[in-house]
Amino acid sequence: MAKIDLVDYDGLLMSPSASYDKFKEATSYEPREGDVFVSSYHKCETKRNTKETVLKVAKFLGDSYFNDLNSNEEQMQKLLEYTSFDYMQKLPFVMPKTIDVARKIGFNVGKNIELVNTGDYVNIQFFKSGKTSYTKENYSEQQKAIMKQMIKDHFAQFPHLISIWKQFNVFL
């Protein structure tokens, strides 16, 4: 098993809303017997030295990956550019307009602008506004509408769940 996880331990522990459950979730990825490779990097460390972190991951993937990346500065710069949040935020991100389309065509959610032109997919805002929390207040109106429709589509056969979600004002 291989798991590479970027956990903001510092932000988690310093947060006024930090709880034992959040800490337990974040630290549940500690290496266990049988794990081949588990690595957690502090996000702040990764932001400070992204290139070094990428090289650590490349080294894990094998010497050929590491050597190719380490010896080719142009390739490294492209990788750093294409994996930056600024770059990814500007890419088109699409999802099926309806659950029926998703079932028929497949759940092709991702950065594929050609799908938008089929009329069955819609371009969406993928990234949240930059605030970290689990509350719906931080989602755009478009994201809220998508989530509301997904809940209705996926849980139509469970009206008792929908009534509970309405009671607690969860997207519905």
UniProtKB/TrEMBL annotation:
GO molecular function terms attached to this record: transferase activity
SUPFAM superfamilies: P-loop containing nucleoside triphosphate hydrolases
UniProt cross-references to InterPro entries, sorted A to Z: P-loop_NTPase
Keywords: Transferase
UniProt protein name: Sulfotransferase 1C2-like protein
